[in-house]
Amino acid sequence: MRLRVLLCCCVGLLTYQATAQTTAAADAAAAKVLAPKKQLNAVRITEAIKLDGQLDEASWQQAPMATDFIQNRPNPGPPEKHKTEVRVLYDDNNLYIGAIMHDVSGDSILRELTARDNFGNTDFIGIFLDTYHDKLNGYGFFVTTGGVQMDCRYSPAGGEDFNWNAVWDSRTTVKGKDWYAEMRIPYSAIRFSNLPEQRWGLNFMRQRKRDNQAFFWNEVKPAVDGFVNQWGTLEGIRDVKPPLRLSLTPYVSGYVNHNPLTEEGTRRTTTSFNGGADIKWGINESFTLDATLVPDFGQVQSDNQVLNLSPFEVQFNENRQFFTEGTELFNKGNLFYSRRVGATPIGFYNIGDTETEKVVKNPQETRLLNATKVSGRTSKGLGIGVFNAASNDVYATFRNKETGEERQQLTQPFSNYNIAVLDQSLKNNSYVSLINTNVTRFGRTYDANVTGGLFRFANKKNSYAVDGRLVYSRRRGHVFHEEDLISDRDGYKYQIGVSKISGSFTWGVNHGIESHSYNPNDLGILFGNNNISQGIYGNYNHYKPFWKVNNFYSYFGLDQSFLYKPTLYQKTNLYGGANTTFTKSFLTVGFNFDVNPINRDYFEPRQSPLGDYYVRVPANGNLGAFLSSDYRKKLAWDLNGGIRVYKEEDRFERARRLGIGFGVSPRYRVNNKLNFRYSLDWSTNRNQMGYVNPSSGDDGSLSDQYPEDAAVLKEFPRAVLLGRRRVVTVSNVLQAAYTFTNRMSLTVRTRHYTSTVRYLDFARLNPGGDEAPVAYTRNRDNTFDAFNVDAVYSWWFAPGSQVSIVWKNAGSSFLQANEATPLYFDNLSNIINTPHNNSVSVKILYYLDYLALRPRRA
């Protein structure tokens, strides 16, 4: 009997295990398959809709309802418990969305106010539209319980791009335990084909912030590659004509600037007044022209200036709206770095005082004359984009020290920047693209051209894909103000990859080459060419809750690179990481690591051509971790830290290299209108070996004008100087925001950055990576400080119309040798007491829409 019972138990256990495995396998297979496509019909109306968030017009009750939303996070799959009801109406000019979000009680509906395009601690409802139904590109419109608007574009190149702004209107109300949203989206805000009957991709999203839950009408599965391809469809829109999309947004602005560092004999307080306009013109139903005439970007957020010890330039964020919105086509292939347009003049760094002349003025920015974008997508899925911008001549001014006479020297010739893009959307979330960028400079200098082709082909099941690119760069002409021909005249880059793109486990392999003369940097950005790289990577993600966590995400990979010419080993990198969120506390934690054997850094010595000189980097490993608490709490924290340990060098009696860093960022929400955020980042690199960073007036190399340098150069004429140094960097950012209404806000952001470099000893770098100690006595220590205040008051007094008042305070200092100090509070005191530039500006934009201004027919 006991044996029989035991056998029955074993059979039952095996049966249960087999069933569980079969069920798990079935669930895993289902998670990789697109959800069934839902359909919703829009209803044409003739009565006027009053946008008040009430939904009391009879038309709303007659329209079909989208409901039965499916949870996407934190637990993908279950249906929503608190119903969402959305209806769509339309007329000849607008699309209307009415939504009712049911909840437990009014207290469960969170409603923090924020500035436009900022998600706060609040619920929201959103609609997604794929107006060409290509399953790749789309629009998103969101409104929060407090009436704050957010809008974005979706594309393979730009992902989810909230820099895009449209002119539309919305209202929300809270009634008992429900909240209502009413949205009016003019057809002029979107683009669609001129067909008798429209068929658009459609989805809705609801966020219930109380439980950190997000729901979609048409289920969006995280294990399926893509987002737009997982939307349902909107039917029933008939006999709608794309309108004449013509709008003018003129602006006027005034500035008062006080610069205490201005040369004697010139005004320290200056004023200026500017005027210009932005124009949007719908050329046809598919294409739009965007132009800015005499643009004014003086109110954009200040750049985060840093001390750059690397051999590569610093990449700054783009804060100018014209270059951030609607640029998804131009960002294909990452060949466009918009900060090149209106950048520092190419001759800026060649200007300096002489024995007889003093530099009075040397502008750091190139003023744009105009910029224009034409972009759109046909009904066949062909995206076409053309970008063009022109900048005027820039001159530096010299003054004779004896006579006082002034002369000007050209630092930037009149220049034209152009981009052309063709992007064909294909079936199965695939595409092919062609991109060309061109910079033409007038006068005796050089021009640059880059042409690239891209492709991505996925299989019918959307489970595997192959992608690649081929790019050719061409430069012709002379170095600015010199007789030498420009270098890097012809170059190329290619990359090919194969990947598994859907499922819990995804992977990919890739290989690429950037030739030694490939240079896209006249209108793009590349930190280093002359590279052969290959890698393999994988991801394992568990999207459903298990144990005590909501999910689990992990990644891992192995990369290796060589110089292209000559073909020499550079580095190998093994890396990985994971993160998860706990179910009850919504505490997110994660870690990352990487391991590197001995690497060769051919770029750090700043020698050309590459290959002879390199800095040996000992084998090292990094371990980092982060923690992020629940943002629904009034007080929330973000913490991160990491340590990189290097192997001791057998060649020298040096202390072991070590890198340590941490960051802490608390945020406190006083109420639904006022919040504070603070971030502190600290890092130190001990016994780092690197090229001696430049002092004022030099490039870091040895110079005969210094006796200490001359002594070394006399013995070693081709000496490359390295320094063993300790680098300590501290960054503090404090931001306070008060939102008066969903259309009026005040933000104050203060940033202090300091970085100190202290050299311990020096070495001479020889070909082949050998280093030899050198008796070098010149003090190369330095400290860089930067301080900024950006205070912005913004009021959207009408759709598309804004008043902004901005105060900027900025100062920086570069202390060298004995003046440099490693003490943080000494640096803070120094930068505060350094004279700062102050600017106060007022700018008024007014949106004029032709459709609203045209005479109405009787």
UniProtKB/TrEMBL annotation:
Database matches in Gene3D superfamilies: 2.60.40.1190
Signal listed as a keyword: yes
Annotated ranges, domain Carbohydrate-binding: 51-208
Keywords linked to the UniProt accession: Signal
InterPro entries in the cross-refs: Carb-bd_dom_fam9, DUF5916
Signal sequence range: 1-20
Record domain DUF5916: where: 242-854
Alphabetized SUPFAM superfamilies for the sequence: CBD9-like
Name of the protein this chain belongs to: Carbohydrate binding family 9 domain-containing protein
